[in-house]
């Protein structure tokens, strides 16, 4: 009996080693930038002389972000596309499900693309009746990017991190918000602050950035990595699925009654800003170690700034090449400011650990550092370059976003949108500490800097010992 137990434990240990080693080794070495990528970037145009056909608006509030999503879905006539890293069946998740189901009942084609890791990590999707109510609908297709397969551990780390919603060829929302309560609406006690941008193409057909995003979606959707999940119509007749559908139908009716403004027609010409040009930056879409295309293109743009670069990121985990790029920006541009969460305010324990450990290296690049310390974890990923370019998307300044995940950033040439972006960023920066040097941090008047508790310090110490070596995966 003891011998059999030892054999079983040995086999389990061998399986665990196989999974861990197989998942880590392929990403130890990070690819460099190819000449092809440099040439393609050099040919891109980020500035326009005249107004283009697309208009844009910043969505900085979580409730506004949910309302605009429901509005676009409720007015769609032909097709809705939702691509999201994480989609939960919580309150805002059910709001979205209810709107998508109602659109499908109207005859609208709905395509939902989710990442395979969080879909199963949260133990919601595998047998969830709400997702089955969607997937079994004749007008809804639900696909998973890179579903978990322990027999292929070398694929486990490649994740779909894009977040966008497209309604017909008229408008889309793109940014950093996942599809659940932390990011949408005003449900629960915990939330994250984040950004989206709404882009309106008008009634004349898709604009250039809309066409680029549609092409990108088709590319990812058609990958062998993206697999349709539970599209069996028979699921829709099961009792628990029928009950879930009824809940969603009743929820949609309640939303219409309680929030009629979410469903009202919107004058997007009046509520958006004129843009000269909108360019989409995208990482490779395979699930292996990636060429850091988005990071290269963003930093190359920043190096060309005339006076100022300001960027926000929830956390910053950089290798030597990434820090070198940041130092080059600071060497070329007079004023370069970064805002990230303070270690005590960071909702990502790995990000907090790495920042505390490597802040001095970041300071050596000469970037000005602001530490957001407002009490709510900041999840925003955005930048402004001088007074024309603004960027919003899913890219964190970390090695995972640079080398592992699919990522999108939208770069917009618009003086008015840039001014709006600066004003919104400044509101967060009012609650930020200013890092003067490695020993000095200035606290704004009326604020008291958060202190890291004993338990958090112990956790940071443990993570530093056992996970510090794997920072390229965090």
Structure notes:
This protein is an alpha+beta fold. 40% of the residues lie in helices and 20% in strands. The protein is built from 16 helices and 20 strands. A nine-stranded mixed β-sheet has the order 8-4-3-2-5-6-7-1-9, sandwiched between helices. A nine-stranded mixed β-sheet has the order 10-18-16-15-11-13-14-19-20, with helices on both faces. A two-stranded parallel ribbon has the order 12-17. Strand 13, helix 13 and strand 14 (368-372) form a beta-alpha-beta unit. The radius of gyration is 23 Å and the shape is globular. It starts with a helix and ends in an 8-residue tail after the last helix.
Features:
16 helices; 474 residues; alpha+beta; nine-stranded mixed β-sheet; 40% helix; globular
Concise account of the structure shown:
40% of the residues lie in helices and 20% in strands. The protein has 16 helices and 20 strands. The strands form three sheets. The chain has a nine-stranded mixed β-sheet, with helices on both faces.
């Amino acid at each position: 009996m003891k011998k059999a137990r030892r054999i079983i434990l040995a086999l389990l240990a061998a399986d665990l080693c196989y999974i861990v080693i197989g998942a880590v080794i392929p990403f130890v070495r990070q690819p460099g930038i190819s000449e092809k990528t440099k040439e393609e970037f050099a040919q891109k145009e980020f500035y326009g002389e005249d107004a283009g056909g697309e208009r844009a608006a910043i969505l900085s509030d979580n409730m506004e972000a949910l309302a605009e999503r429901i509005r676009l879905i409720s007015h769609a006539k032909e097709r809705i596309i939702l691509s999201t890293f994480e989609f939960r069946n919580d309150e805002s998740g059910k709001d979205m499900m209810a709107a998508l189901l109602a659109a499908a009942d109207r005859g609208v084609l709905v395509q939902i693309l989710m990442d395979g890791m969080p879909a199963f990590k949260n133990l919601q999707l595998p047998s969830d009746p709400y997702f089955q109510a969607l997937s079994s609908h004749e007008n809804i297709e639900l696909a998973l990017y890179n579903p978990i397969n322990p027999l292929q551990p070398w694929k486990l780390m490649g994740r779909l991190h894009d977040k966008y919603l497209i309604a017909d060829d008229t408008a889309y929302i793109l940014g950093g918000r996942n599809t659940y309560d932390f990011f949408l609406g005003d449900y629960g006690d915990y939330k994250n602050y984040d950004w989206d941008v709404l882009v309106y193409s008008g009634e004349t057909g898709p604009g250039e950035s809309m066409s680029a995003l549609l092409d990108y979606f088709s590319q990812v959707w058609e990958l062998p990595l993206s697999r349709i999940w539970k599209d069996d119509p028979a699921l829709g007749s099961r009792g628990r699925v029928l009950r879930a559908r009824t809940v969603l139908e009743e929820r949609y009716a309640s939303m219409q009654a309680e929030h009629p403004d979410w469903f009202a027609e919107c004058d997007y010409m009046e509520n958006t800003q004129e843009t000269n040009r909108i360019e989409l930056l995208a990482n490779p879409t395979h699930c292996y170690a990636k060429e850091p295309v988005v990071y290269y293109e963003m930093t190359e743009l920043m190096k060309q700034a005339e006076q100022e670069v300001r960027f926000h990121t929830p956390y910053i985990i950089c290798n030597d090449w990434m820090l070198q790029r940041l130092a080059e920006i600071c060497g070329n541009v007079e004023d370069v400011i970064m805002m990230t969460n303070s270690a005590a305010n960071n909702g990502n324990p790995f990000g907090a650990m790495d920042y505390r450990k490597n802040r001095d290296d970041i300071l050596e690049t000469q970037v000005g550092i602001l530490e957001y310390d407002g009490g709510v974890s900041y999840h925003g990923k955005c930048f402004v370059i001088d007074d024309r370019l603004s960027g919003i998307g899913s890219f964190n300044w970390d090695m995972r976003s640079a080398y592992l995940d699919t990522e999108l950033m939208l770069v917009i040439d618009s003086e008015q949108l840039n001014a709006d972006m600066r004003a919104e960023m400044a509101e967060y920066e009012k609650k930020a500490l200013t890092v003067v040097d490695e020993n000095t941090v200035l606290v704004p008047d009326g604020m008291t800097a958060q202190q890291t508790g004993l338990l958090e310090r112990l956790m940071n110490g443990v993570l530093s010992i056992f996970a510090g070596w794997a920072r390229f995966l965090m």
